[in-house]
Amino acid sequence: MQAKKRYISSVLVAIVVYVALLKVNSHNARFSTIIQKAVPLAVWEYVADFSNVKKLNPSVIDFDIIDEDGNYGHWTYRTVYTEKMTYIPLLTNVGYADFTIKPIGDYYVILSKHKTCFFWNLICYNTTSQMDFRPYVDSKDSTQFIESIIYECPWALSRLCASELDVQRTTYIKNLQNHFVHLAYKQ
Q1: How many CB atoms lie within 10 A of CB 99?
Q2: Are 52 and 110 contacting, i.e. CB atoms less than 8 angstroms apart?
Q3: What domains does the chain contain, in order, with CATH numbers?
């Protein structure tokens, strides 16, 4: 009888863990800003150069570009990066990402697919992102930057995921704006 109770308790705990940590929901997020005194081509080229990622996103600890292909009109690359969490700095994840960088008419895009893994790749979540770099309507020498993100997150951690994403993207956008403000100031 005691063994049966332990078994039922174990099954219930497993179900709770599954629902709380492994059952994922998809979420949408959108971030946008105007980058003053920087044309879309310059902003797009800066962001497309993954070596700038640590300047834009300080939570990225390390990265390796493991494959690249194409040309200026359609460039792709694959990277592996390690990232620390803002709210739980001792927790890191490994991201595997595929990027597609290309101009489309008078604007530019960066498409990416990420697989973010925790605990030695035991638990992984998917994210897609589209970054658009367009001429800003009110100023020829400014860029409208828009990023649309679809990300997966465990049901129990939805608020933490949303907060983490918000902090990271807000920092990313602020650092992107600051780079071009400092660049314009130097000229």
Answers
A1: 20
A2: no
A3: 26-186 (3.30.530.20)
Q: Which two tokens stand for residue 180?
A: 């071009």
Cβ within 8 Å of residue 67, ≥6 positions away:
77, 78
Amino acid at 95: G
Mean pLDDT of all residues in 121-143 = 93
**With b meaning 16 or more CB within 10 Å and e meaning fewer, what string describes 112-132?**
bebbbeeeeeeebbebebebb
What angle, 0 to 180 degrees and rounded to 10, lies between the N-to-C axes of helices 40-48 and 158-186? 120
- Cα separation, 146 vs 141, in Å, equals 17
Residue tagged 């990265």 (tokens): 63
Report residue 20 as tokens. 């709380």
Q: Give tens-digit pLDDT for 55-96.
A: 999 999 999 999 999 998 899 999 999 999 999 989 999 999
Burial class (CB in 10 A: 0-12, 13-18, 19+), 38: buried
